[in-house]
Write a structure and sequence with these properties.
The chain is mostly helical. The protein has 13 helices and 3 strands, in the order ααααααααααααβββα.
């Protein structure tokens, strides 16, 4: 009977709660939670900053599954053996071979493949495609500027930035952790080489276009390549392209003989204005005008037509030899 009475009481309370317009929920936190969290925070602060741990050291880590997921995230088809080799550095392979030798493993099982040849192959493919892409997209820029832009795209900092955002940090097998910028850049080159071996050279070209060449998106090319001697370069370009002799002319000035002096200089060739610039003196204004004129001639202004990152260059236009 007591059980029935308690059940009837619970049902009555449930009906009252359903009929009430608002129901207040309470959070019940045990009294031991707050001092425990404070003690844990105190211990963490006492230990100081800890070195990051390898993700591969966790129990649930599965290298094969992570490699498979890496390829699917990129939408590419890799041979797992090639991709595994792409993330294995030579120093790591040598350390593993020494460890196996100390354990008494036979010499036939000591060899561990590494990514040295894939890195070299990927570097060759990436440079060849980047140079072909720049020549196609920036036909008016001289070879000096194309080489400077290509060096920016293929620099260790740029490649490490791309590699880290693709999620290669925890996949790289190296003797150091976290991997250095050089290791990240080499792993990206090795991935390009592994992709060429697995899916063909065309897929490797598309990979370079999608992940490396796109670093030029919304990038001011003047920040990437700034001529050291713009006036001399402008005179050389005008002579080569038969634009006429470049002549700087003073267009305006204000605040002479003051700390806020400003000059405007324009550069003409065959009575055509090539560019203009401002500066605190005539020399600075002339150099700025020369840079503006070079941007106009090379078609590298901010309002130029955006890069076409959907273009597919024919393999024969990419010089791999």
């Amino acid at each position: 009977m007591s059980f029935l009475r308690s059940a009837v009481g619970l049902l009555a309370r449930a009906k009252l709660l359903e009929g009430s317009p608002t129901v207040q929920t309470r959070r019940h936190i045990k009294r031991w939670v707050s001092p425990t969290l404070r003690e844990l925070a105190h211990r963490q602060k006492k230990l100081g900053p800890q070195k990051p741990e390898r993700r591969a050291g966790f129990v649930e880590w599965n290298q094969r599954s992570e490699l498979f997921a890496f390829g699917k995230r990129l939408g590419e088809s890799f041979e797992l053996s090639e991709l595994q080799r792409a993330f294995t550095e030579k120093s790591f392979a040598e350390r593993e071979e020494n460890r196996r030798r100390q354990l008494g493993i036979e010499e036939s099982d000591l060899q561990m493949p590494h990514n040295s040849d894939l890195v070299e192959k990927g570097q060759h493919i990436a440079r060849a495609y980047v140079e072909a892409f720049l020549q196609h997209q920036l036909p008016k820029v001289p070879n000096e500027g194309l080489q400077a832009i290509a060096s920016f795209l293929l620099s260790t900092e740029t490649l490490a930035h791309v590699s880290s955002h693709l999620g290669t940090k925890d996949l790289i097998q190296s003797t150091e952790y976290p991997p250095s910028a050089e290791s990240l850049a080499k792993s990206l080159h090795a991935v390009i080489g592994a992709l060429a071996s697995s899916s063909g050279i065309e897929r490797a070209f598309i990979f370079v276009r999608d992940f490396i060449c796109t670093q030029l998106n919304q990038k001011d090319l003047l920040d990437v390549w700034t001529p050291q001697k713009p006036i001399q370069l402008l005179e050389k370009i005008c002579q080569e392209r038969k634009l006429g002799e470049a002549e700087p002319r003073l267009l305006g000035d204000c605040g002479k003989n003051t700390v806020l002096a400003a000059y405007q200089v324009g550069i003409y060739a065959n009575r055509q204005l090539l560019g203009k610039g401002f500066g605190e003196d005539v020399k600075t204004a002339t150099e700025t005008a020369a840079l503006d004129a070079l941007q106009s001639i090379f078609d590298t202004r901010d309002n130029r037509r955006p890069f076409d990152f959907a273009i597919q260059l024919e393999p024969k236009t990419v010089r791999l030899g």
